[in-house]
Specification:
heterodimer, A: 418 residues, B: 226 residues, Rossmann fold, 2 domains, 5-stranded parallel β-sheet, 8 helices
Chain lengths: 418, 226
């Protein structure tokens, strides 16, 4: 084995010379014990070996070289070439025939071996690919791409075999994708049903609370049995008013949400002064507890003012609800690339970074807080997206939450305003 | 308080109509009611009211049609009652000649304030000099002074201010302002209007971030409060 791999490792010309030199050495060594002429056969296996390893050309070359070497070193007169000697030609004929037969046999064996190992590689590749693709739930497209890349490298016969195999793989993958699609649809239906149930539950709860307060207040006011001082009456009337306002907001939010979900809330974008948008929203929730710091040199926002106002009011109400009393909610605004970002900061109990996104979905509620149906953020989010903007929530350093509403904006040139 | 003014209230919901009429009578108005567009026009024709409170959704037609019809022979102020989601209809009614709007549900106090302002407006005439807060607007000289100092306004800014000040308290839609100030070819091009108004506000309001005179009605238009 070692000799074989050594012969394989060296260049053919070197191997040929080494083998011939070895044969010559053996003939030289055997000369005292055998008739010189019969030692010519020693070159036959040498030529066989060379032909088998290095192919027909080297084999025939070796045949001629053997003949010359035998003639030169061993046939009398030694150290001269006597080509006229008929024995030379007989030996040469034997060597050449050996070389041709040996190289042909060896080439055949090599071809078979190569073919076998090629098939083995193909089988392994196919098995690996199949296992990997099936195991990883590869998509149909991925299998197709992989098949293409494998087939490109394969020869004609391999391609036929691969085609069939990949065809089967594709069928399995397609079937699997169909099943997955069906499962997804079923899941989506189930979830939309669950969402509806949640909505109805949350809304019923949110309606019941103000209704109960109002019924109680009105009962007291209209009852002949209850004696009320004028302060008591004023208090009950105030409760009626604030609960009515709460119901109204709830209905408006539901309406907004349904319009957003039905994509019926088509924005009419116009250029608006950002400071004004903020002012309109702050006015609606009451200026008392909101600190506004909006520079007046910001670019104009291109948005639907009514929708952005609804978004801002919801964000402000949310911030005010969760901020402790006496701790102001701050509104700032800054210019970013082709947009303006309005930031509403509170010092409430804050949010976890991992729940920030989920809170923008309808009826999500942060942590332990049980107030409101959680519509406000979803509506603000919906209006932000409808206007080509974005809304994100993040915890603030030192506690509280920052809501960042980004809106598309552009600079209005002074000439346009003349 | 007894104003004695005659108010026509139009709404197709009997309970709401009754509550509204009771409140208005309690506030000293003479009240007539109608429950459809047809009834409203007949009633207004027979007994010309001093003001109309008009619901936008009626069984036999839109309130906007009633506005348009009434405006052909009556200058009585019209206050439309709209609901959330009816914004387009509300704007159409204002464009068709309505003076103001309230959104259902509304507090009766708000409606009474709007009604008082509308009635007062219909009895005042145009004066050449209009003064509000620190602002003195001279329509003849086309000049504006704020706290005694002359302020330069661009022609469009002056046009907006003159239009709003000539209709004190009245809600003017974006379309109306654009038509009156820029010309009849405009009306849907409210692109720069809001930015103009913001600029104007910076020139005449003492605190532009909390305006007292030049007010925005989100989604509807602007009004100037004297």
């Amino acid at each position: 084995m070692r000799a074989r791999s050594a012969l394989n490792a060296v260049p053919p010309i070197v191997g040929t010379i080494v083998v011939l030199a070895a044969a010559t050495g053996i003939v030289y060594a055997l000369r005292p014990v055998a008739p010189t002429l019969s030692l010519g056969v020693v070159y036959t296996p040498a030529v066989l070996i060379i032909a088998a390893f290095y192919g027909m050309a080297f084999g025939i070359g070796a045949a001629f070289a053997s003949m010359l070497a035998f003639n030169f070193f061993f046939l009398a007169p030694v150290h001269t070439l006597t080509l006229a000697d008929g024995r030379n030609w007989a030996a040469l004929a034997v060597y050449v025939v050996s070389a041709v037969i040996a190289s042909e046999l060896a080439a055949q064996a090599r071809r078979r071996a190569a073919e076998a190992s090629q098939r083995e590689r193909e089988a392994v590749l196919l098995a690996d690919t199949a296992a990997e693709l099936l195991h990883r739930d590869a998509a149909v497209d991925e299998i197709r791409a992989r098949a293409d890349s494998v087939l490109r490298d394969a020869d004609e016969r391999a391609r036929t075999r691969f085609d069939a195999a990949f065809g089967a793989l594709l069928e399995v993958a397609e079937e699997r994708e169909q099943l997955e699609e069906q499962a997804r649809e079923a899941e989506a239906l189930r979830r939309s049903d669950a969402v509806k149930t949640t909505i109805i539950q949350a809304v019923s709860h949110d309606f019941r609370t103000p209704l109960a307060t109002m019924t109680a207040a009105l009962g007291g006011l209209s009852s002949g049995e209850v004696a009320l001082s004028s302060e008591d009456r004023a208090e009950l009337f105030e409760a009626l008013g604030s609960e009515l306002a709460r119901l109204t907001r709830l209905v408006e939010n539901l309406l907004d949400l349904s319009r957003l979900q039905a994509a019926a809330a088509v924005p009419h974008p116009e250029l608006w002064d950002v400071a004004e948008l903020v002012t309109l929203a702050v006015d609606e929730v009451g200026r008392g507890s909101v600190t506004v710091q909006v520079p007046d040199d910001l670019p104009a926002a291109r948005v639907d003012a009514t929708q952005v106002q609804r978004a801002l009011v919801n964000l402000l109400e949310n911030a005010l609800k969760f901020s402790g009393s006496g701790v102001p909610v701050t509104v700032t605004a800054r210019e970013s690339e082709r947009s303006v970002t309005i930031e509403i900061d509170d010092r409430g109990h804050g949010i976890r970074p991992d729940e920030a996104e989920a809170l923008l979905e309808p009826f999500a509620r942060g942590g332990a807080v049980g107030q409101g149906a959680g519509l406000g953020l979803a509506i603000a989010h919906g209006f932000a997206l409808a206007n080509g903007g974005a809304l994100s929530l993040a915890p603030r350093e030192g506690g509280g939450t920052r809501a960042s509403l980004t809106l598309p904006a552009e600079r209005v040139s002074a000439e346009a305003l003349q | 308080m007894s104003t004695g003014a005659r108010v026509l209230v139009v709404d197709d919901e009997p309970q709401f109509l009754r509550a509204l009429a009771t409140n208005l009578r309690g506030a000293g108005y003479e009240v007539e009611t109608a429950i459809s567009a047809g009834e409203a026009i007949t009633a207004a024709g027979l007994n010309s009211p001093d003001a109309v409170i008009l619901d936008l959704v009626l069984p036999d037609g839109r309130g906007t049609e009633v506005c348009r019809e009434l405006r052909q022979w009556s200058t009585a102020p019209i206050i439309v009652v709209s609901a959330v989601g009816d914004e387009d209809e509300k704007i159409a009614a204002l464009d068709a000649g309505a003076d103001d709007y309230v959104t259902k549900p509304f507090a009766i106090g708000e409606l009474l304030a709007r009604l008082r302002a509308a009635l007062r407006r219909s009895s005042t005439g145009g004066e050449p000099v209009i003064v509000f807060g620190d602002v003195r607007l001279d329509l003849e000289k086309q000049s504006v002074e704020v706290a005694g100092r002359h302020v330069h306004l661009t022609p469009h800014e002056f046009g907006i201010l003159r239009l709003l000040a000539s209709n004190p308290g009245k809600l003017l839609t974006h379309r109306t302002i654009l038509r009156e100030v820029w010309g009849p070819a405009y009306g849907d091009e409210s692109n720069y209007l809001h930015v103009y108004v913001s600029q104007l506000r910076r020139k005449i309001e003492p605190d532009p971030s909390s305006p007292r005179h030049l007010l925005t009605e989100p989604g509807a238009g602007y009004r100037l409060v004297l």
